[in-house]
Design goal:
By secondary structure, this protein is an alpha+beta fold. The chain has helices spanning 3-9, 38-43, 54-62, 74-88, 135-148, 160-164, 172-175, 189-204, 207-223, 227-243, 297-311, 340-368, 373-385, 437-454, 469-481, 516-547, 557-567, 570-575, 578-584, 587-604; strands at 18-23, 29-35, 65-70, 103-107, 115-118, 127-132, 257-264, 268-277, 280-290, 318-320, 333-335, 393-402, 405-415, 418-419, 425-428, 462-466, 489-494, 499-501. The radius of gyration is 39 Å and the shape is elongated.
Amino acid sequence: MTTQDFQAISSTIPKQPGVYRFIGAENQILYVGKAKVLRNRVASYFGQRKDRLHRTRIMVRNAVRLEFTIVETEADALLLENALIKTHQPRYNINLKDDKNYSYLCIKQERFPRVFITRTVVRDGSTYFGPYTSKGQLKIILDLIKELFPLRTCNLNLNQADIEAGKFKVCLEYHIKNCEGPCVGEETEENYQEKIEQIKNILKGNFAEVKRHFQAEMERLAEAMEFERAQQIKDKLKVFGNYQSKSQIVSITIRDVDVFGLAIGEKEAYLNYIKIVNGAVIHTHTQEIEMNLDDDAESLLTYAIPTLRDRYNSIAPEIILDRELELPGVEATVVVPKIGDKKRLLELSEKNAKYLLLQRKKQRINNSNKQTPAERILRTLQADLQMDELPRHIECFDNSNIQGTNPTASCVVFKNAKPSKKDYRHFNIKTVVGPDDFASMKEVVFRRYRRLRDEGEPLPQLVIIDGGKGQLSHAMESIDELGLRGEMTVVGIAKRLEEIYFPGDAVPLHINKKSESLRLIQQCRDESHRFALRHHRNRRSNAMVGTELHEIPGIGDKTVQKLMAHFGSPKKVREALASEIAEITNLSTAKKILDWYRRKELTDKP
């Protein structure tokens, strides 16, 4: 894929969590990645980053298209990424070992059940919650559970006969009040099981029942004047609610199922397919379907579901849909979930289908809108200069001096192919002595982009240097010194043949003389020259005024400006009659000026 390919589809990529896949020419998955914001993450593959690995560049170059799947949270994206990598083992992904699984919270199937963290799911009747992407977070959850509900941590076989026989003794956990002593009969199985039920409610997200349980406990503590403990229970339950998490991507209660979500538009429909094997999503795909006039949801599903199941070799015994439907020739049961994990999977599938349908509508509207002239010119310029980004922000530099006197430079700014005069800047050369255009260009480029970098202002996409290889190479010295090479495209334009030079390339680019992009470059160059020349003339005029009229006692800036506007130079003021000067100012001022010039002539004579 090229940068142009990405720009053509960038607006269709969602700004939501999800998983993206680079697909090769033979329809194979080259790379699977996750993202908190899909559009931003995918865009990073097409910028001008110098630190990008060569392996990544090759992968992007070999990809022919991009696919993505939306999920609810970043944690879900991580789980789906892991499942897809394990299933497809893409060439450019780091392989994840099969023994690297996520953590679960287990409620053991036993008398006085233990609650602990495990990476292994054993189907012995125990209850598992998860998976959780962060074991550290899960430990915090477990600590909070144990603080709310004191549980045993020992692995003793607490059968009733041994308890009654007094074979067990309380441990340290009992003495520090982390356990209520079921091993010695101090806690009944009924009371212990009630705590386990409340823990299950919390992990399932059934907070209403838990709140009722704790409300009664808090009221009891309040009546006993134990207000501090009552407040602690309330605060800890609130904190626990913030940490509680449940994934939609992998479910221990769901085995092999196919999930289909349908979104229907006016001219096309999208059917999203999620394939789940052993409780994990191993494939997702969204199929576009062209609709005929008489097509309805049932006919589309009846046609597409067997086709997709055959394509992806699915033998799942269960199909999740949003409606009852007979599927001739399909050996699977159709399930229409109302609540629970299956319902959430169906909603996720429908969300992906609806998103693509919405993007298709937006694309159709955008295609119907005509491209603006500025957009057309900028895209032509982007193609001519082989730029990765559209040059919406252009800056152009030029120098101006006469035999090294009053050296100045200008920076003009074009935004969306039009001059942005409020952003123009001029420079007085500070470090260069004499007529040295190369050194002057190096100075102003350094000053300009050091300031933009230090102030965190956006850099232009295109920088134009008025001059050939010499000015361009000196400008690049400043850009390299600032560490900005690769952050923007920099070119030089030679005036004689309108040649475009690139850094480090001795062969210039010749753009068609009638090209709109060349005319835009010339407009930038001419505007920078005009702006630099105007500033240079102002400096020369101010210098001349400063040596003559400003030295006359009693003559202020406003009077000098009036005289210069009328006569044009100090010399013509000196040669004017008193009556002519008085017409601009007054007779007293005219007398002061002429008397000052007479005295100056007398003192200047040898």
